[in-house]
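lol forgot to send this yesterday, sorry. struct tokens for the thing we talked abt
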């Protein structure tokens, strides 16, 4: 494949932290801290970068720098790194030349590199999830999808073996300026495609190393261009390659602090820290303005989980329309005369009714606001049919939509009910969803979670 090994190590570390928390039956807050401790240990040990491990956990996993969690995360990262050094030795992850900032006049070039890196980071994330969507839509058995992805990467790698595996050898060649500019240019896109095929098809791997890889190629190409144009003002391409690694990582993960510190620790080069921080923060700013979610959190958001939102918002996003809708629907035919409809409406508990044709297909909706003025009009009962006063443009939801989406649609038009239609057939009604149904499902979910939490605390 063409993916990183650091992502799985972080997942394993976080899994160990979660397992320990479940065995000890700790509180929710302590569980989050233990998961962050595992992630920090994974990053610290694999990159030989304890400070970056701490910053990754605080910046990405926890999303804050609370002192209560900070000390535990520091201990975990330091101990994990110490164990790693005892077995692997105390060496930087990359042996790189000692590049430095030529002059302060060079800083604008690193600003521009930060902008380009942010755009490349968003492109990487977009291609990855488009590829994931493509494989999800394939009508083939699930076990064949990774095989298709692996075959595609294998064919691509026959012509361009640089894209295989983690890619540290190719990164080193870029940093040591052993790759021509056209190779740097091509490998940016080839690595993005290869990694997207590997992960999007269902293969296992992380995006840390691919982000560093793409950043090294992006920075190296940019460095080739600016150094050829301004040789007296700029460092050689290797320096830009190093900075590009951190900048693209900052853009994909939306974590500028840990990206800058990882590059600082894995290269051991302090002279490059100023342009590195500048490019990382600008890349993060550009990427976050284009796409609010990082390459990590987008996957969760697509599943209805927003780690930046409150617990209540996540409940609404985790519940589907099918969890709250009423299967029994009170409909009216579009050719029904007004007098017949008014009798039905006044005897009903609903204030709006989906309108259907002779084939039971949805053609509109009629609400109390549509017919309230007709109640006291004499002589119109036999002249007007439901179709004449119904609203033809109907706002609907499907059973697979979230309650958060449904509530937004209800609030947009200030209506009480939404017809639920089949996902594959927008004209077929499968149920009805009201504002009351949404809040009832939400309250039930909150109560259930509270009961489960109380049971857990009682066991502790």
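and heres what i got for the seq, position by position
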């Amino acid at each position: 494949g063409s993916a990183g090994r650091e992502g799985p190590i972080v997942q394993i570390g976080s899994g160990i932290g979660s397992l320990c928390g479940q065995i000890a039956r700790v509180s929710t807050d302590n569980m989050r801290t233990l998961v962050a401790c595992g992630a920090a240990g994974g990053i610290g040990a694999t990159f030989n970068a304890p400070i970056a491990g701490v910053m990754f956990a605080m910046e990405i996993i926890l999303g804050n720098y609370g002192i209560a969690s900070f000390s535990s995360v520091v201990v975990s990262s330091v101990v994990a790194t110490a164990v790693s050094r005892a077995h692997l030795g105390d060496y930087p992850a990359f042996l790189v030349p000692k590049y430095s900032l030529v002059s302060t006049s060079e800083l604008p070039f690193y600003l521009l590199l930060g902008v380009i890196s942010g755009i490349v980071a968003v492109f990487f994330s977009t291609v990855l999830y488009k590829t994931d969507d493509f494989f999800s839509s394939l009508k083939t058995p699930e076990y064949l999808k990774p095989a298709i992805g692996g075959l595609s990467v294998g064919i691509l790698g026959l012509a361009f073996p640089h894209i295989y595996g983690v890619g540290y050898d190719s990164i080193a060649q870029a940093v040591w300026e052993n790759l021509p500019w056209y190779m740097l240019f091509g490998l940016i896109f080839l690595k993005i495609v290869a990694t997207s095929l590997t992960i999007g098809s269902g293969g296992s791997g992380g995006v840390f190393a691919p982000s560093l890889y793409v950043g090294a190629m992006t920075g190296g190409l940019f460095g080739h261009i600016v150094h050829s144009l301004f040789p007296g003002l700029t460092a050689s391409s290797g320096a830009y390659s190093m900075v590009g690694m951190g900048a693209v990582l900052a853009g994909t993960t939306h974590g500028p602090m840990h990206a800058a510190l990882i590059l600082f620790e894995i290269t051991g080069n302090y002279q490059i820290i100023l342009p590195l921080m500048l490019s990382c923060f600008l890349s993060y700013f550009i990427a976050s303005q284009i796409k609010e979610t990082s390459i990590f959190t987008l996957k969760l958001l697509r599943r209805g989980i927003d780690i930046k939102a409150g617990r209540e918002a996540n409940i609404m996003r985790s519940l589907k329309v099918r969890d709250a809708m009423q299967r029994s629907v009170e409909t009216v035919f579009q050719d029904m005369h007004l007098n017949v409809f008014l009798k039905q409406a006044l005897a009903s508990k609903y204030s709006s009714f989906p309108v259907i044709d002779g084939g039971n297909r949805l053609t509109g909706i009629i609400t109390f606001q549509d017919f309230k003025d007709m109640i006291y009009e004499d002589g119109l009962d036999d002249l007007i049919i439901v179709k004449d006063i119904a609203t033809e443009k109907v706002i609907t939801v499907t059973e697979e939509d979230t309650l958060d989406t449904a509530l937004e649609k209800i609030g947009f038009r200030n209506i009480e009910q939404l017809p639920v239609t089949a996902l594959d057939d927008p004209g077929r009604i499968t149920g009805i969803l009201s504002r009351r149904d949404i809040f009832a499902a939400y309250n039930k979910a909150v109560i259930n979670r509270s009961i489960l939490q109380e049971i857990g605390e009682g066991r502790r």
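Residues 343 and 375 are 10 Å apart (CA to CA). anyway ping me if u want another try
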